Amino acid sequence: MAEGRAQFAKRIELLGRKHRKLKHGYVTRDGRDGLISILPKRARRGFSMTGLYLIVLVFFGFKAFTLAAIGPVTYNERLSRLNNGSSFEQIGAKMMAIDPVTDALAGLTRPVMR
Questions:
Q1: Do 6 and 28 fall into the same domain?
Q2: Which of 45, 9, 55 is nearest to 24 (CA)?
Q3: Are residues 31 and 7 in the same domain?
Q4: Domain of 54?
Q5: Of these four, 15, 25, 69, 95, which has the most CB atoms within 10 Å of its CB?
Q6: 64 in the same domain as 23
Q7: Is residue 54 located within the same domain as residue 109?
Q8: CA 70 from chain center: how many Å?
Q9: What is the rounded distance in angstroms from the CA atom of residue 71 to the CA atom of residue 8?
Q10: What integer pLDDT is reported at residue 45 of this predicted model?
């Protein structure tokens, strides 16, 4: 009787472990013999490169839109005011400086803005 109870407890523990693995999603696979297997999805670790690309794209898009909207003369005047500010503002001015990518994107959006 004790042996049956130990086997039952072991089976329950294995089912609990399998359930914990599958709670974050699963995929089904068909085997060569026609048996359908359910496997846990692999956990994604780390930072998504797609998210990083999206952040960079939005940043350059914002810079280009701002440059096209207010013009390069006003844009540079505002950057020079930032350069005279605190260290945080100076870092922002360096990040918002006109670069070739921003200039090219602003050139594309300038006709649409006018």
A1: yes
A2: 45
A3: yes
A4: 49-113
A5: 69
A6: no
A7: yes
A8: 30
A9: 75
A10: 74
Phi, psi of 94, rounded to the nearest 5 degrees: -70, -35
What type of residue sits at position 5? R
53 and 20 both lie in a single domain: no
Q: Which tens digit of pLDDT belongs to each residue from 10-67?
A: 999 999 998 888 888 888 889 889 899 888 887 777 778 899 999 999 999 999 999 9
* Percent helix, strand and coil across the chain, each to the nearest 5: 70, 10, 25
What SS3 state is found at 27? strand
Contacts by 68-71, CB closer than 8 A, 24 or more apart:
68/106, 68/109, 68/110, 68/112, 68/113, 69/113
The single residue listed with the structure tokens 């005279």 is 84
Amino acid 99: pLDDT:
92
- 3-state SS record for 52-86: HHHHHHHHHHHHHHHHHHHCHHHHHHHHHHHHCCC
Number of domains observed in the structure of the chain: 2
* pTM over the 0.85 mark: no
Residue 114: what pLDDT? 66
